[in-house]
Write the structure tokens for this entry.
Amino acid sequence: MKRNSHLAHLSPNYLFLEIQKKKKAFLEAHPEAKLISLSIGDTSEPLLPSIANALSNYSKALSTEQGYSGYGSEEGTKQLRTKIAETLYQNTMHNTITPDEIFISDGAKCDIGRWQLLFGTDITIGLIDPCYPVYSDGSAILGVKNVVRMPLNAANNFFPDLKRADLIYFCSPNNPTGSVATKEQLTQLVHFAKQNRSILLFDAAYASYIQDSNLPKSIYEIEGAKEVAIEVGSFSKMAGFSGVRLGWSVVPKELTYECGYKIKEDFKRIITTIFNGASNIAQMGAITALESYSELQKQIQLYLKNAVLLKQALLRCGYRVDGGEHAPYLWVSQKERSSVDLFNHFLEKYHIVTTPGNGFGVYGEGYVRFSSFGSKKLIEEAAQRLSVTYPSSPPFSSS
Ligand code: PLP
């Protein structure tokens, strides 16, 4: 068997594995160090008890004759699809989202992979850069060759100079930059896609972190978006489901290929062929999560307060800090320092693990990403370390 050449061309280590290696090497050299990891963007607060009960009750019922169920509909239960439409898409007045346009998944990342499969390799993709790695790596694995990069940087206020592509990936609130697009910017994006006959793959995995009602939580808050956009959503960061696994895609009826065939029909074909639907247990938990939406906001507020705390501490130290207001990520830079230099600097000087920005794309060079997930206590300790140059006379600090 020959190795798949597309895989062989990928960087050998996925971003976070690389960080784990560096972390391990540092701890071997300095076993006394107490590292604080603000690297991987994963939730830390426990599930709400009501959600855990829903998961457990449904699981228990599966052991009874009346409560057992096997395969469900590949698109997800009608009850959950209706609940998502009613709870999360009530602000999309220009574009009513109906349950039959919602497809339940086992998470946004997995769905992005299925989308990539659907559109195939013979397309040009437009990547915001830096971006969530699956946009570029998932396409590269399939063999997509034509990639147009649209840099996000401080000079353009983290909204790109839009370039023509068949499929444009966009993410707001953004991972890794922590920035959020305004209504005007998303209107520009939708108009651009219409004019250029592009399809938008809008990743709204962090929509629930938006705290300002003037900022769109969904691309469908923009008039005309149903004709050009697919939206991917996730329960991971909204309800702590990164391990439970549940997400969804919105595929509007209006979205068609140039021949007029509905993209929705092909997506259904893909999921019935290679997916088979999300866990029925997780779907029950998701219904309870949506019923507890205001409770979940308390957890989100905690992560956002963490972000403020970290931001203040980093600004006091003189770093440039973007993001962190409507997203659990801070995008940190300092003068001409490279990503690796900054990563080593925070590791060695403060024993804080970050993510080098160049792992998210070439235009992430010069930045590191701080995640604000973690307990209040942990983040307070990180902020404290930043404030007092921890440790005061480090035995092994190199910068
Ligand atoms: N999209 C973005 C921008 C993310 O940052 C993440 C996870 O970190 C995902 C999607 C993946 O979400 P899920 O856990 O639903 O696969």
